[in-house]
Amino acid sequence: MEAVRRLLDLRHRSRPEDLPPALTAVAPLLGAVRVVALMIDYEQISLWPLHGTPADNAARKVDHTMAGHSFRTAEPAQDGSCLYLPLLHGAERLGVLEVWLVSEPDDRLRRDLRVIAALVAELIASRRFYGDAVERTRRRMPMQLAAEIIWNQLPPLTFAANDALVTAVLEPCYDVGGDAFDYAANGDIIHVALFDTVGHGISASALTTLTLNTYRNARRSGLDLADTYRSIDKWIRAQYPGAFVTAILAELDTTTGCYRRIAAGHPAELHLRGDVPQEALPTPTALPLGLGHMINRPPGITEVMLEEGDTLVLYTDGITEARSADGELFGLDQLTDFVRGELRAKTPAAELMRRLIHTIVSYENGELRDDATAAVVRWRP
Fold first, then answer.
1. Across the strands, what pairs with 190?
2. How many CB atoms lie within 10 A of CB 284?
3. What are the CA-CA distances from residue 358 to residues 43, 95, 355, 371 (Å)?
4. I need a surface site. Which of 42, 84, 94, 242 has the fewest CB within 10 A?
5. What CA–CA distance (Å, rounded) separates 226 from 228?
6. CA of 209: how far to CAs of 145, 176, 212, 364, in Å?
7. How far is it, in rounded angstroms, from Cα 349 to Cα 239?
């Protein structure tokens, strides 16, 4: 309780970099020699000590380490005298708490350390906007301004509540400009949207910012899917004549499993039941946002009933149009095979997204030609 009290004191007057020395101070109260908060980098390749951690700047790789195992599975892991606990803010994976113990922990200490890890995650999440220590830790190279703008618009990568889970990933994380996603849980409805803006750089990020915030404004005003589409379309046409954004605008009723969506010039989602692909959803059902005025009819809304455990994978064309060195497209078939394999292996959804984007980056030899964004929606996971 004394360790909890000292950490809670950080809530009122502290910066993010005040957390590492506080963890060092409370370590003896936890039966530990040392406690380190490790943050995941933007590329989700390595875990790094939070800025301000004394005498430690070494990375722990996500793959092939016990710290990484704890991050990948979101479960505790132990390697000799070192215990690793996932730092989870809701369902969002922030990193791992590394605890170097004096002796083998009993069940009570393990439970207590999980509470400490949960508290540390909350402190990181609440303090991160009061300073740049978390961002400086997560960034391993300079971030382009367009990407800075987009990342500051996005919700956490992973969300779980109300019998549903949403998780997403973006790449190239330091230079993304035209892709974005959003979600919200309101009552029994999960709202999800994926956007792919024409162009790149600052102009694309400005258009994406308008699109995201118009979508949120429409949603928060209580507009239905069709009127949300019309609102975004109107504002894009007014502010950026001739520009357009492809999108999936969707709603999932978590009480019934009813999934309704508009495909605005966008690739159709993958729909899998277990690991079995279902019939492709029709696309497009509307013109891209910004071009809707060219057809005098309402946007088409597709409705499908999900079953428990169904998975939907939304993606931008940067995923399927990734090219190998010999020019071969990654394509829908490879995407489907990849997702099926991960579902068979029971890979957690957030980890599936991490592995997918690394597969795409590797397929293009580390240099993406286009923004690549994907999101998973699961009902009653």
1. 185, 252
2. 17
3. 9, 18, 5, 13
4. 242
5. 5
6. 13, 13, 5, 28
7. 37
Report the SS3 class of residue 307: coil
Give the pLDDT confidence of 43-89 residue by residue, as tens digits. Answer: 999 999 999 998 888 999 999 999 999 999 999 999 999 999 999 99
Phi, psi of 193 (to 5 degrees): -145, 145
For residue 164, give Cα distances in angstroms to 160, 192, 325. Answer: 6, 11, 38
Is residue 381 over pLDDT 70? no
> What residue type is assigned to position 16 of the chain?
P
Instruction: Please provide the CATH number assigned to the domain covering 2-138.
Output: 3.30.450.40
pLDDT at 177 over 80: no
What are the residue boundaries of the structural domains of the chain, listed by start? 2-138, 145-379
Given a cut of 90, is residue 226 above it in pLDDT? yes
Counting residues of the chain whose pLDDT is more than 90, the rounded percentage is 88
User: 3-state class of 164 per DSSP?
Assistant: strand
228-231 long-range contacts (CB < 8 A, ≥24 apart) are: 229/262, 229/264, 229/286, 229/289, 229/292, 229/299, 230/292, 230/299
Number of Cβ within 10 Å of residue 268's Cβ equals 18
Q: In the structure encoding, which two tokens stand for residue 289, read together?
A: 């946002």
pTM for this model (two decimals): 0.93
Rounded Cα distance, 193 and 183, in Å: 6
Q: Which helix (H) or strand (E) holds 228?
A: helix 225-239
Mean pLDDT of the chain: 95
**CATH number 3.30.70.20 given to 145-379:** no
Concatenating the DSSP letter of every residue in 18-45 gives: GHHHHHHHHGGGGTEEEEEEEEE-TTSS
Handedness of CA 129, 130, 131, 137 (dihedral sign): negative
